[in-house]
Amino acid sequence: QGNMAFAGKYEFECDENYDDFVKKIGLSSDKIEMGRNCKIVTEVVQNGNDFTWTQHFPGGRSTSNSFTIDKEADMETMGGKKFKATVKMEDGKIVAEFPNYRHTAEICGGKLVEVSSQISRLVYKKTNKDLK
């Protein structure tokens, strides 16, 4: 599947599991409150594989990340933490590995749908017991 058209402005509509997610990634309580049900507008400028992804918050604050698909870019989290990431395109979805979570974005029915899932870590210890 080719690149989907992401360009446009999208107004926040709803969230699922916001509180659990932002606590798990370590956002401070003031940032959690600021983000709760606020009318964030996400603006996406796309030129082929080049993107500028900006979130405008009430009160005039905004954060912006510019990246090119499959090239490492300097990025910033909602909490202001800077990191490097290579953003990919997988099955029409934009995928970025943030420090504590995986973020995907896709266009569904004319809407921008973003999903952030915490990256889990499983650790197994060796056992001497026979497993059947």
UniProtKB/TrEMBL annotation:
InterPro entries found in the cross-reference section? Calycin, Fatty_acid-bd, ILBP
What GO molecular function terms would the record report? lipid binding
Where do the Cytosolic fatty-acid binding proteins domain residues begin and end? 8-25
- Entry-linked SUPFAM superfamilies: Lipocalins (SSF50814)
Localization in the cell: Cytoplasm
> GO cellular-component terms in the record?
cytoplasm
Q: What keywords are assigned to this protein?
A: Cytoplasm, Lipid-binding, Transport
Q: Which family does it belong to?
A: Belongs to the calycin superfamily. Fatty-acid binding protein (FABP) family.
Q: What is this protein called?
A: FABP6 protein
Q: Record the organism.
A: Baryphthengus martii (Rufous motmot)
Q: What's the source species' lineage? A: Eukaryota, Metazoa, Chordata, Craniata, Vertebrata
Q: Which gene encodes it?
A: Fabp6
